[in-house]
Every structure is written in structure tokens, then in C-alpha cells.
UniProtKB/TrEMBL annotation:
Any GO MF annotation of the entry: tRNA (adenine(58)-N1)-methyltransferase activity
GO CC list: nucleus; tRNA (m1A) methyltransferase complex
Family: Belongs to the class I-like SAM-binding methyltransferase superfamily. TRM61 family.
InterPro entries, sorted: SAM-dependent_MTases_sf, TRM61_C, tRNA_MeTrfase_Gcd14
Annotated organism of origin: Paramecium tetraurelia
Protein known as: tRNA (adenine(58)-N(1))-methyltransferase
Catalytic activity, reaction form: adenosine(58) in tRNA + S-adenosyl-L-methionine = N(1)-methyladenosine(58) in tRNA + S-adenosyl-L-homocysteine + H(+)
CDD domains: AdoMet_MTases (cd02440)
Length: 287
């Protein structure tokens, strides 16, 4: 059952719309009318009607996919095509320890935290103080206790605990990290620090929008002795169901519409418009 204080994903008109924290005495308002929060104390996914009895909405338990669809964009975020490939190629599993640099809006952070589970740890670093604070608030709101967000310039200060007093919580130790993800303008400048943290056999992924960044990163990875270098680009394309009417030449000449169900063929077709380029994913392994 949903309780006061829970943060849920609000579904409206069949689509995930936003985060909503159920609060005693509050009211949610939309084009269908008012919804008192006490009516939200139901099982996740149950239909909830407005005070007028119209406009059903639904509250769903947050999961990585829904979080990515609804998280407020403080920066350009990664979507499921890239996220799924990152988790697969980094070989993430419950109990592992992961470093992320470039928290941004927290979309990928939530997926990484879900992949390592409650027994794992995610250490995520953000250069911008406002975005770092937003990351901390997001993890607290969604009760992602295995993730810790730090405000830090990793180019200059790396990932180990330093003398700065801004950051509280557990820091990772040298050679204790299973996987590293870098979403930085110049990821090659953070590779020395990454090498100190990664375990033998651990993997790294660098996200870069431009091929020139990939070239510099790949060259530095190779010079530092990383192995199994690979760069990928993930493009997502949707398919839809269509029905085609098979008409004979006679039907075509007479301009008749085929009504015989046996001549109607169901098939799938890709939508012409595909999601464009987001960036390149460069993977390597420390051996």
C-alpha cells in the first residue's frame, strides 16, 4: 500500500508524467479536477478518480525505466538504449561497487544503483554544486540508500577521500571498484584516477558525444595498458503494427476496397523517424 511520504510516478492520460510525493492534507490538480492525497493510499497501479469522478490517474512504484522517463532534466540525459548497453557491457550485478563521474540529472545513476542492488554501492561525482545537491535530494526522495553523491572536480582531486569538508559519507578505497562510468568533457584526464580505483578485471565506460573525444580517450586508454577497447553507438527505432489489404488486379482496376478478411495481412514496420545520435560509448577492461 502507498503511504504518506512515498514518492511515486504519476501516470496521466496513459503516460508517465512526473514524480509525486504523497503528502497528508495536499491536493493534486489537473484538467480533470482535484485529487485529494488521501485517495492515493491504495495499492500501486490502482485507478484513482478525481473529486468529480473523472479522469483516472495511476500511481506507480518508481523503477529505472519510469525514473528515466520522468526525472527533471538538469542536463541532457541518457535514455534506455545507452543505459541498457552500459549495464550489459560493464557486466554489473548485485553487490558490486561502481563509480560514476558526471551525475547530471541522475537518470543513469538510478539505473546503476538498481543494477548493483542494496548490497552494492554507487559512488557518483558531480562538478556542479547545484546538480550534486539535486542528486542527493533525488536519492533521498526515492530512498536509494546504496548511492552517494559527491560534489567534486575529479580531474584535480580524483575519487579518494580528500580534505574537503563539503562531502560526507563513505568514500571508495583504491583497487575496490568493479566498474567505472565517465560522462565528462575530457574523460582522458580522469583515467589516471580511474586506474587507481579499478580492480583487476574491472571495466570502464566513457560516454562522449564527439568522435574527437573518443579518439583521445581511446589513445590514452591504450597507452595506460587498458585492454579490449571497443566503441559503440546505440540508436533506437520504434516499430508499429499495420494492416495491409491485398487486392487483386481486378479489384485495383475497379477501385474496390477489399473487405475479405483473408486478404488482410498484419505486419510490422519501422517508423521512419528514429532517435538521432546521442553519443559514443567506449569500453575497456583493466587487466
Amino acid at each position: 500500500m502507498i503511504q504518506y511520504g512515498d514518492t511515486m510516478i504519476l501516470f496521466e492520460d496513459g503516460k508517465p508524467k512526473q514524480f509525486l510525493t504523497v503528502t497528508q492534507g495536499q491536493t493534486y490538480q489537473n484538467k480533470y479536477g482535484a485529487y485529494h492525497h488521501y485517495t492515493f493510499l491504495v495499492k500501486p497501479g490502482e485507478e484513482i478518480l478525481s473529486k468529480n469522478g473523472t479522469g483516472p490517474i495511476y500511481l506507480m512504484t518508481p523503477n529505472p525505466h519510469l525514473i528515466t522517463e520522468t526525472v527533471p532534466h538538469k542536463t541532457q540525459i541518457l535514455f534506455m538504449a545507452d543505459i541498457s548497453m552500459i549495464i550489459l557491457k560493464l557486466c554489473l550485478k548485485p553487490g558490486q561497487r561502481v563509480i560514476e563521474s558526471g551525475t547530471g540529472s541522475g537518470s543513469l545513476s538510478c539505473s546503476l544503483a538498481a543494477a548493483v542492488g542494496h548490497k552494492g554501492r554507487l559512488f557518483t561525482y558531480e562538478f556542479n554544486k547545484e546538480r550534486a545537491n539535486n542528486g542527493k535530494e533525488l536519492f533521498a526522495k526515492l530512498k536509494i540508500n546504496q548511492a552517494t553523491c559527491f560534489w567534486r572536480d575529479v580531474y584535480a582531486n580524483g575519487f579518494l577521500k580528500g580534505e574537503d569538508t563539503e562531502n560526507q559519507g563513505e568514500f571508495p578505497q583504491e583497487s575496490s571498484i568493479d566498474a567505472i562510468f565517465l560522462d565528462l568533457p575530457q574523460p582522458w584526464l580522469a583515467l589516471d584516477h580511474s586506474k587507481k580505483m579499478i580492480k583487476k578485471g574491472g571495466r570502464i565506460c566513457c560516454f562522449s558525444p564527439c568522435i574527437e573525444q573518443v579518439q583521445k580517450t581511446a589513445l590514452e586508454l591504450k597507452q595506460q595498458g587498458w585492454k579490449n577497447l571497443e566503441t559503440l553507438e546505440c540508436l533506437k527505432r520504434h516499430f508499429e503494427r499495420r494492416v495491409k489489404q491485398e487486392q487483386s488486379l481486378f479489384d485495383d482496376v475497379q477501385k474496390k476496397v477489399c473487405t475479405d478478411q483473408n486478404k488482410r495481412v498484419t505486419y510490422s514496420a519501422g517508423i521512419n523517424q528514429a532517435y538521432g545520435h546521442t553519443g559514443y560509448l567506449t569500453f575497456a577492461q583493466y587487466i
